[in-house]
Recover the amino acids of this structure.
C-alpha cells in the first residue's frame, strides 16, 4: 500500500524567510516516516477553507524543485496541475526538469482546473467546463509524447506543437507517470483509461467503488488492462485522541465542507485503519493525505501508523 503526503497549507507560524525551511521539514519528515510521495497543490491563491487569498501560497513547481534538493527518496508532484495555467509543452519541460533535478522522482499530476477566483484575479482565462476538458485531453497527449521523447507535432483546437524537442530527456524510462485528477465519469475517467498511469479520486467507499467500476469499463472499451492504472485517493486526515475529539472534529469539518465530509478521514487509530480497510476493498491502492492543521509530529505519527500497514 502506497502512502503520500500533500502539503496544502503554508500558514505555518513562521516569517516568510523561514517558510521554505518549514515546508522542507514536513517533506523530510514524511520521507523519514515512510511516505512514498510528497505533493503540493497547484494554486496561486490559497483555498477558502484554509483562509483564502490573504494566506500564503507558494508556486508549485518552484517549490517541488527546491524540495527535490532536500529529499532523496519520495516522489514529487502537484495534485493537480491546472491545465489552464501553463502551455502543455512548457509543462512537459517543467516536469522533465523536476525529474532531472530529483534523479527520476517526478510525477505529472494534471486536471481541468476549477478555482475561478484565482483565474480572475491573475487574468488567466477560465473557459467553460467542456473547453477545459478539451484542453485537458490535448494537453495530456502533448505532455505524454514529450515525456516519452517523441518530438510530437500536434495540431489541436487549443494547442499546437511542431517537432517539440525535450532535451534533456526525463531520467525515468518512459518519462514521469501521469496522474489525472477527478472522478467525472463521462470525460475524466475516460481520459484516465486512455492516457494516464494513475487516477486520483475522492469520496467514501461506496463512491470510490462506483468510480473504480466506471474506470474499469472505460479501460475495457479501449482495450487496456485496468491493472495498469493505479487508483489513488486524496483526503484530509485527522488522528484524534478520544471519541469526544472525533465527534467535535467531524462536526467542525462538516461545517467547513458545507455538510459533505466524504473527503475527511477523522478518528482514533483503530477507526482510521478500519476506514482504510473499507476504502482499499473499494479499490484504493494509494492513499494520499493532507493534514493542514498538523505539524511534523503528526506526519511522523501517521507514518508510524500506516507506512507498514497493508489491508486485509
Amino acid at each position: 500500500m502506497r502512502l503520500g503526503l500533500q502539503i496544502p497549507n503554508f500558514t505555518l507560524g513562521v516569517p516568510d524567510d523561514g517558510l521554505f525551511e518549514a515546508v522542507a521539514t514536513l517533506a523530510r519528515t514524511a520521507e523519514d516516516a515512510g511516505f512514498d510521495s510528497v505533493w503540493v497543490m497547484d494554486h496561486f491563491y490559497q483555498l477558502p477553507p484554509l483562509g483564502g487569498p490573504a494566506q500564503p501560497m507558494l508556486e508549485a513547481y518552484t517549490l517541488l524543485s527546491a524540495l527535490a534538493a532536500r529529499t532523496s527518496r519520495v516522489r514529487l508532484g502537484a495534485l493537480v496541475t491546472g491545465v489552464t495555467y501553463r502551455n502543455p509543452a512548457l509543462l512537459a519541460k517543467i516536469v522533465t526538469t523536476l525529474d532531472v533535478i530529483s534523479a527520476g522522482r517526478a510525477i505529472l499530476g494534471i486536471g481541468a482546473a476549477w478555482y475561478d477566483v484565482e483565474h480572475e484575479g491573475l487574468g488567466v482565462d477560465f473557459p467553460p467546463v467542456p473547453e477545459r476538458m478539451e484542453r485537458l485531453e490535448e494537453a495530456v497527449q502533448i505532455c505524454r509524447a514529450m515525456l516519452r521523447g517523441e518530438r510530437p507535432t500536434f495540431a489541436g483546437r487549443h494547442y499546437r506543437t511542431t517537432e517539440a524537442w525535450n532535451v534533456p530527456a526525463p531520467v525515468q524510462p518512459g518519462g514521469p507517470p501521469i496522474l489525472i485528477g477527478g472522478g467525472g465519469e463521462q470525460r475524466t475517467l475516460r481520459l484516465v483509461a486512455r492516457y494516464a498511469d494513475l487516477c486520483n479520486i475522492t469520496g467514501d467507499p461506496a463512491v470510490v467503488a462506483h468510480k473504480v467500476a466506471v474506470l474499469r469499463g472505460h479501460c475495457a472499451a479501449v482495450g487496456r488492462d485496468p491493472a495498469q492504472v493505479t487508483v489513488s485517493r486524496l483526503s484530509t486526515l485527522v488522528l484524534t485522541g478520544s471519541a469526544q475529539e472525533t465527534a467535535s472534529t467531524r462536526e467542525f469539518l462538516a461545517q467547513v465542507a458545507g455538510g459533505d465530509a466524504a473527503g475527511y478521514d477523522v478518528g482514533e487509530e483503530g477507526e482510521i485503519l478500519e476506514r482504510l480497510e473499507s476504502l482499499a476493498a473499494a479499490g484504493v491502492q494509494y492513499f494520499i493525505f493532507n493534514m493542514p492543521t498538523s505539524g511534523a509530529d503528526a506526519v511522523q505519527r501517521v507514518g508510524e501508523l500506516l507506512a507498514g500497514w497493508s489491508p486485509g
About this structure: The two ends are 11 Å apart (CA to CA). The chain has one domain: 2-306. The longest helix spans residues 129-147. DSSP finds ten helices and twelve strands in the chain.
